[in-house]
Amino acid sequence: MGAGSIGGTQTDFLRSVLELPQLTLAIAAPDGTHQRCPLGLGPVVVGSDPGECDVVLEDPKVSRKHVEFWREQPSGRVAVRDLGSKNGTFIDRVRVERAYIDPNNRVAFGGSTAWLEPSQGADRIELASGITFGGAIGASLSMRALFASLERAAQTDETIVLSGESGTGKEVLARAIHDASTRRSRPFVVFDCSTVTATLAESELFGHVRGAFTGALQAHAGVFEQANGGTLFIDELGELPADLQPKLLRALEARQIRRVGSTEWVNVDVRIVTATHRDLRARVAEGAFRQDLYYRLAVLDVRIPPLRERREDIPLLVEHFLGLQRPPRTVADLPPNALELLQAYAWPGNIRELRNTLARMLLFPTTPALAIGEPVHGVAPGGLTQGTGRPSAFAPASQATTLLGLPLREARDVVVEQFERAYIEAKLGEHAGNVSRTAEAIGVSRQFLHRLLERYRISRT
């Protein structure tokens, strides 16, 4: 797909700076107080929950996450969307689910009112000239602005926090930062806080000496030592146990670590990139995350837009994932009207969900009940778990042969997703929907199990 076909003309696309007319969202609360928030490329969420909203209102009639405002690109029009609120959102006294507004409109929700305030100035936003950054792809203005920020940051050794929903490609971006840095020839090591139990986290981070604890039969180098000279990517930082947060801060400040059971300090030279799907500032306010550690890490705190905010990138991503198939595929290989369905869906699982949905579409192109974002139903007999209508992780040989038409990673993701969904549903059933007991039974952290429940939209009841 040519660059000029996405978001404007070829000349517009190659511009390195976007001049965005300054626009402010003004909100009046029932008590007469006013708040103002600039409208940039990202959305502004308004509601009563400090952990979920950009603008927090003391309004008893406003829902936890009530309404969202954002600028559509490339048109620049301001859109408003009700987020499933209890009392609704109204534009000039007409209830709306989604609509466009201008400075002449008044948006009412609960007992509050919002409107737009334009000004004469303009914000200059640097944009990357290309549509890729490492393995990440995006032609939308929000992604090109993100790429420009990360390209600049990659040339430094400053720490970075990548904030975004699950499936938005945080690890891909972390790898791209490493590959664009002067450390590219050194190790890139991943540490996922959500998949390691609290008792093992310190050993995995800093290592241990032989005999440090029961089962420590030999010395082990932690991820800091493994990444020495390179980049350490700490994923799901918000799940880091509280007792390890001061130890991580000390390692960052002193550039030294001490293995569990040792009295010796080891110098380390590591660039830190972190990622989280949580709002760390809200976690700091709650007392669940150390403020000094957050400010030490968030030299650059960037938000990765979810796929629903950049739907114009979906055709490009579809072409990319189809081109990775062996043999390469095209949109013509998908079921009729597939691209329209893909662009209309909200993608709560983001790019990961899109990739796996495409793999299922290619595996089962004639499945009449194929639903975007849902597991495949109605596949050949033997491929279903009896009585559930869900695909079995242990498919018959004919389906296994079909999987051979996919690259290893895509084939593995499809099978793992089917297995994890069926396995977790069965284990939850065994423990009457209790997440803590289920997590303990299957040997993962409660936080990690919650992530899987969210990813697969599995109900606990």
Characterize this entry briefly.
With 461 residues, the chain is an alpha/beta fold.
Question: How does this model look, in words?
Answer:
- Helices cover 31% and strands 20% of the residues.
- By secondary structure, it is an alpha/beta fold.
- It has a six-stranded antiparallel beta sheet. A five-stranded mixed beta sheet has the order 4-3-5-6-9, with no helix packed on it.
Helix content: 25-40%
Q: What's the overall average pLDDT, rounded?
A: 83
Count of strand segments: 20
Share in β-strands: 15-25%
Q: What gyration radius follows from the Cα positions, in whole Å? A: 24 Å
- What class, by secondary structure content? alpha/beta
- Please report the distance between the alpha carbons of the first and last residues: 45 Å
Give me the number of helical elements: 15
Low-confidence stretches: 1-15, 374-399
Strand order of the largest sheet: 2-1-11-10-7-8
Major sheet: 6 strands, antiparallel
What characteristic shape results from the CA principal axes? globular
